[in-house]
Design brief:
By secondary structure, the chain is α/β, with parallel strands linked by helices. The protein is built from eleven helices and seven strands. The termini are far apart.
């Protein structure tokens, strides 16, 4: 009788145990992937299976704003290596010369393949002449990368409203102003890509960056509304990139409580995504015409997903993260210090 029971139990239970073990293993793999991934699912899939930047972007004339440091500078290097003629813009001409020199050193491009066009995004009357300069030199613009911009570190209650005006002038109005003459040219050619470096802060909110988040939300709203205005031009793509924290000069350059006040709390940036990785995923998104791509480590990536599907949970997480950001800021370190490290 006992032997019979053991035989029956074995026959019934072992398949259950095997299935449960398999399910637990699959769950473990999924959680491991989610903890380590640094882009949304579509982007990570296309990184493996989609079009390669090395095949899609050589020979394309690409205009990068904010090319004098950080993400824009690194993008210039990666695109130069691929063989894309470049237009480099920002306010600091000497820094653009430095970036151009390095681009020429690391690539097969010639001097005339890289054009420097100094440009202040807030000087809107200069955007049309700058576009004419580029067209005179290259005859076309295949891709505009709207990258120039500045972030913010200050509590709303302590911040002069002039700061909000300056952030919107630069990040939002400056960007859509330069886009206009370039897009007109793309419409004439019936092709082109407008790539805008927005932010995960264009999807979620974050304390100490009320103006910055507002400007990035404005950009997302603008470009998401512009895209369906262009449906008769299927070869024109509007691409929004949403990075999380990335190593760059952004914290040195943030707006604070007053327009003229600089930021003293720069701190360690080493826990952030590398500039190289952010740019690589951005180029994959450009090559594959992704409408929106999230380029971020955790926990921001999870918050982005929650924000879309379960906003109340997202708020719970964001309030906890926000409390830590404000504590960090008030204790004199950068707000973005890793959520896994304790501040002393
Ligand atoms: N790093 C991050 O964590 C992160 C995350 C999400 C999104 N982003 C976005 O990525 C973009 C690039 O930032 P980054 O991180 O590379 O910071 P960054 O190193 O400070 O670079 C900002 C660039 O913008 C240019 N710029 C600033 N004010 C300008 C103006 N008035 N006119 C024209 N250009 C101007 C700067 O050049 P000049 O000073 O020479 O003009 C510089 O080249 C920004 O739009 C930022 O919002 C960054």
């Amino acid at each position: 009788m006992a032997d019979y029971l053991v035989a029956v139990l074995s026959a019934v239970c072992w398949p259950c145990v095997a299935k449960a073990t398999l399910a637990a293993f699959v769950l473990y793999l999924l959680v491991r992937f989610a903890m380590r991934t640094d882009g949304d699912l579509t982007l990570r899939w296309l990184e493996r299976r989609g079009k390669k930047p090395e095949e899609e972007l050589p020979g394309k004339v690409i205009w990068i704003t904010g090319a004098s440091s950080g993400i824009g500078e690194e993008m210039a290097y990666q695109l130069a290596k691929i063989g894309s003629p470049l237009v480099l813009s920002a306010r600091r001409e000497n820094e653009l010369e430095r970036v151009k020199k390095k681009c020429l050193e690391i690539s097969q491009l010639n001097d005339k393949d890289i054009l420097i066009v100094p440009l202040d995004l807030t000087q809107r009357n200069t955007h049309e002449p700058a576009t004419s300069t580029v067209l005179k030199h290259f005859g076309k613009i295949d891709i505009l990368v709207n990258n120039g911009g500045r972030s913010q570190r200050s509590l709303y209650v302590d911040t002069n409203v002039d700061v909000y005006n300056a952030i919107m002038e630069l990040n939002y109005l400056g960007t859509i102003s330069l886009t206009k003459p370039v897009l007109n040219h793309m419409i004439q050619r019936k092709q082109g890509k407008v790539v805008t470096i927005s932010s995960v802060m264009g999807i979620m909110g974050a304390p100490l960056a009320t103006g910055y988040c507002a400007s990035k939300h404005a950009l997302m709203g603008f470009f998401n509304s512009l895209r369906p205005e262009l449906t008769e031009y299927p070869e024109i793509s509007i691409i929004n990139i949403c990075p999380g924290p990335v190593q760059s000069q952004i914290i040195q350059n943030v707006f604070t409580e007053e327009v003229s006040k600089t930021n003293a709390n720069v701190g360690d940036q080493s826990h952030k995504m590398t500039t190289e990785r952010c740019v690589r995923l951005t180029l994959v998104s450009m090559a594959n015409d992704l409408k929106e791509a999230w380029v971020s480590d955790q926990p921001y990536l999870t918050v982005c997903y929650l924000w879309q599907y379960a906003p109340t949970w997202a708020w719970w997480m964001l309030n906890r993260m926000g409390k830590r950001r404000i504590q960090n800021f008030k204790s004199g370190v950068d707000a973005d210090i890793s959520y896994y490290k304790k501040t002393s």
